[in-house]
């Protein structure tokens, strides 16, 4: 047994020194005020935040739980505090085109005051204008204008009547209009008399009637013209009179916003429109009963046009805005135009326009999770267009219930915004490969690492993080050995003794659970035992499936030998990932070799249970056999390899070395130890390559050995490259210390086959022949025999 391959207990343990943890408990430490191990990401974010231009938006990637959002909030808060607060935004009516309301920018924190002052101004006019219109002075001026019109009307008709009288004609007013009749002694001529008149007299009456009719038409036209002049005079009189009234009450609003030119222009338009529609400020009490409600409705609609719709209010903000949009629907991002049902259709006005998070973050920073955005191409395309054009137009979204109905078209708003997308690696790889425009507007990438080297400085920061977590969450503080237990847990998360996990979400969860168990024991500090109990209890809550699988080794439902030797049979190790936990499960790999069609039969592939990576591993096994044994003649052997009692599908190449050991055993006829399980991938040159889940695989075989009966010779063979990844459970570590369980590190197939068989692998001479008493020599002898048989059979 090659003892130099065995990993010693002292190589698996790390102890702290007093200099590394110079405190009694974490209450003596200042809370962490910085970031651990994320220099690359922090500098990338700082670069993106300080770069000008709409294309320097940022996408933040990293493993979940690395504190991306927390760190981002802190950086953005500090960065945004150094900038001026952007203006408030409000929307007002466009009196020239009500379908295109106007967006106005106001000094920060003043939009609500502007809305309030405008509302007060209109409410005052609603009271003042009716009073003014009903005043004696105003009524007297109206009567004077009306009397002047009446005089003109009377004079015009008197002229016509004088002409008619001179021509013995009279003018009678009927429901149909005016009628001209002949007179005799001042009285209308009777019909029987009229019928007896001579033709000459009738012609004279007709000619005179035409003269009077012509004069009457001119008089009616004159009366109409006089009426228009009266209306114009009335309107001018009212306008001149109201000018001072409206100005008196609008001037305080002007004064409040004297430096805002856009508001000054708007207020001038408001003043003109109020004077134009002054009648609508009446209560409508003098209207006809059937028209009163309609009048009031019209008056309400008119008065609503003077309201102010506040889109963004920054009264409570300091510095540039930072908005985290947790639910980025189209409406929540870009705003919406609400609708109300009116007579079977939908209607909208500018007061029903609502801002989204893009407007709220305008002038600052908008943080979005990438995954929800990708559920709607319409949202994603709109976001890109908005950023590319630096302009937002609030419009109906795809989910609007009034699609196809006429809607508002508010003027576009200039956008000066930095967007930070946060998410995992997969969606960003998808966008970069599928969307050519992505990298043009998201030019800055900030990658958050999930691990950091365990230096003295990192340890110091880690202990301060633990102290800060205790203070922030009102938890008990940790003793020195409790802190070290957290450090060990952090090493376990990254499966590397030299590094610490930066997935602080998981770390914080474990800290809280350790505090719970300390509370159960009424302890005033959290110790190593509390941390270990928290870890064990967390696993217990999630490992029912693991326990059920282990039970199958008890009743022989799953066949597994953990002692003795077998030809062509090796114990491989697989990992089952259940989300919150992962665990190892040993499985038996068998290989059979025989005369037949040359090649390796992958039983899993033939049964459609093999993934692409596993198929690749099988081809590498074939390549290795060809490299080692087929340089003088072709291989004339069929080899069947399978994972026994596996029905769910196989993928990955971490068992390729195990499969090769089974093949070498089958070909050589040399049995392999069953008390050693094997993991590791192999390349065509026979080098053993690192694999994932090494701790879970080792612990999985250890648990099966415990179930089936422990022997001091049992152990696991792993790639040498995985030696630093060993952070094992305490019970496994204890067994290794007591030499009841062993771990071997292997760099090449030759080392592994010697350990599994106890026989040298063999080194070929110049003629490419291996010694007959070696594993490779016996494999070569079997292959030569198969080749000769195949040649003989072919002859």
UniProtKB/TrEMBL annotation:
Protein EC: 3.4.21.53
Catalysed conversion reaction: Hydrolysis of proteins in presence of ATP
GO MF term list: ATP binding; ATP-dependent peptidase activity; serine-type endopeptidase activity
Organism: Desulfocicer vacuolatum DSM 3385
Active site: residue positions: 654, 697
Keyword entries, A-Z: Hydrolase, Protease, Serine protease
Enzyme class, spelled out: hydrolase
Matches recorded under InterPro entries: AAA_32 (IPR041699), Lon-like_helical (IPR046844), Lon_proteolytic (IPR008269), Lon_Prtase (IPR027065), LonB_AAA-LID (IPR046843), P-loop_NTPase (IPR027417), Ribosomal_Su5_D2-typ_SF (IPR020568), Ribsml_uS5_D2-typ_fold_subgr (IPR014721)
Alphabetical list of Pfam families matching this protein: AAA_32, Lon_C, LonB_AAA-LID, LonC_helical
Membership in a protein family: Belongs to the peptidase S16 family.
Lon proteolytic domain span: 564-759
GO biological process: protein catabolic process; proteolysis
Highest taxon listed in the record's lineage: Bacteria
Protein name: endopeptidase La
PANTHER family referenced in this protein's UniProt entry, alphabetically: ATP DEPENDENT LON PROTEASE FAMILY MEMBER
């Amino acid at each position: 047994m090659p003892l130099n391959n065995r990993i010693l207990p002292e190589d698996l343990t790390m102890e702290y020194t007093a200099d590394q943890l110079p405190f009694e408990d974490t209450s003596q430490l200042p809370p962490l005020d910085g970031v651990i191990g994320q220099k690359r990401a922090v500098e990338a974010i700082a670069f993106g935040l300080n770069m000008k231009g709409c294309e320097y938006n940022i996408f933040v990637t990293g493993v979940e739980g690395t504190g991306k959002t927390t760190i981002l909030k802190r950086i953005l808060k500090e960065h945004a505090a150094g900038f001026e607060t952007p203006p408030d935004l409000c929307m007002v009516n466009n009196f020239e085109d009500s379908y295109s309301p106007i967006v106005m920018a106001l000094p920060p924190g003043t939009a609500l005051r502007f809305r309030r002052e405008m509302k007060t101004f209109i409410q005052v006019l609603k009271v003042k204008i009716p009073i003014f219109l009903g005043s004696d002075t105003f009524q007297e001026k109206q009567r004077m204008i009306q009397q002047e019109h009446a005089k003109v009307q009377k004079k015009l008709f008197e002229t016509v009547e004088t002409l008619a009288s001179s021509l013995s004609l009279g003018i009678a007013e009927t429901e149909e209009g005016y009628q001209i009749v002949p007179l005799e002694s001042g009285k209308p001529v009777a019909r029987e008399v009229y019928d007896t008149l001579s033709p000459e007299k009738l012609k004279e009456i007709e000619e005179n009637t035409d003269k009077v009719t012509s004069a009457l038409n001119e008089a009616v036209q004159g009366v109409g013209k006089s009426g228009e002049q009266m209306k114009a005079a009335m309107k001018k009189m009212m306008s001149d009179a109201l000018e001072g009234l409206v100005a008196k009450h609008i001037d305080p609003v002007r004064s409040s916003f004297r430096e805002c030119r856009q508001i000054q222009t708007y207020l001038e338009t408001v003043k003109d429109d109020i004077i134009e529609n002054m009648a609508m400020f009446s209560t409508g009490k003098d209207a006809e009963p059937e028209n009163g409600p309609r009048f009031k409705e019209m008056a309400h609609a008119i008065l609503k046009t003077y309201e102010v719709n506040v889109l963004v209010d920054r009264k409570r903000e300091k510095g540039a805005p930072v908005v985290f949009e947790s639910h980025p629907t189209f409406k929540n991002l870009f705003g919406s135009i609400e609708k109300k049902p009116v007579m079977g259709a939908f209607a909208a006005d500018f007061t029903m326009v609502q801002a989204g998070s893009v407007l709220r973050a305008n002038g600052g920073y908008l943080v979005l999770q990438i995954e929800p955005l990708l559920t709607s191409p319409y949202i994603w395309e709109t976001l890109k267009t908005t950023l590319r054009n630096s302009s937002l137009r609030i419009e109906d979204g795809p989910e609007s219930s009034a699609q196809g109905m006429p809607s508002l078209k508010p003027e576009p708003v200039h956008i000066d915004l930095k967007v930070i997308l946060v998410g995992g690696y997969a969606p960003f790889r998808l966008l970069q490969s599928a969307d050519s425009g992505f990298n043009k507007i998201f030019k800055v990438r900030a990658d958050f690492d999930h691990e950091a080297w365990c230096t003295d400085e990192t340890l110091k920061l880690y202990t301060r993080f633990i102290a800060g977590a205790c203070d922030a969450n009102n938890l008990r503080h940790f003793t020195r050995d409790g802190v070290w237990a957290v450090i060990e847990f952090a090493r376990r998360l990254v499966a590397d003794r030299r590094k610490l996990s930066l997935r602080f979400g998981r770390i914080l969860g474990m800290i809280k659970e350790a505090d719970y168990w300390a509370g159960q024991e009424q302890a005033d500090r959290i110790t190593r035992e509390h941390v270990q109990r928290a870890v064990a209890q967390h696993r217990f809550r999630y490992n029912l499936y693991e326990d059920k699988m282990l039970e199958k080794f008890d009743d022989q439902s799953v066949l597994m030998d953990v002692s003795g030797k077998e030809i062509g049979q090796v114990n491989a190790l697989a990992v089952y990932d259940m989300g919150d936990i992962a665990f190892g499960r040993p499985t038996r790999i068998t290989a059979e070799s025989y005369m037949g069609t040359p090649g390796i039969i992958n039983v899993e592939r033939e049964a459609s249970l093999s993934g692409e990576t596993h198929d690749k591993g099988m081809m590498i096994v074939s390549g290795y056999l060809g490299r080692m044994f087929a340089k003088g003649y072709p291989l004339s052997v069929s080899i069947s390899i399978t994972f026994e009692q596996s029905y769910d599908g196989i993928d990955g190449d971490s068992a390729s070395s195990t499969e090769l050991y089974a093949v070498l055993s089958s070909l050589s006829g040399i049995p392999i130890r069953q008390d050693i399980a094997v993991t590791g991938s192999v390349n065509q040159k026979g080098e053993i390559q690192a694999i994932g889940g090494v701790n879970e695989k080792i612990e999985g075989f250890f648990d099966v050995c415990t179930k089936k009966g422990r022997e001091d010779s049992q152990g696991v063979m792993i790639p040498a490259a995985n030696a630093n990844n060993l952070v094992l459970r305490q019970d496994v570590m204890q067994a290794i210390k007591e030499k009841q369980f062993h771990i071997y590190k292997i760099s090449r197939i030759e080392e592994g086959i010697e350990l599994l068989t106890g026989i040298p692998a063999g080194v070929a001479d110049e003629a490419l022949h291996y010694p007959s008493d070696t594993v490779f020599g016996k494999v070569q002898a079997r292959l030569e025999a198969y080749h000769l048989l195949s040649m003989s059979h072919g002859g």
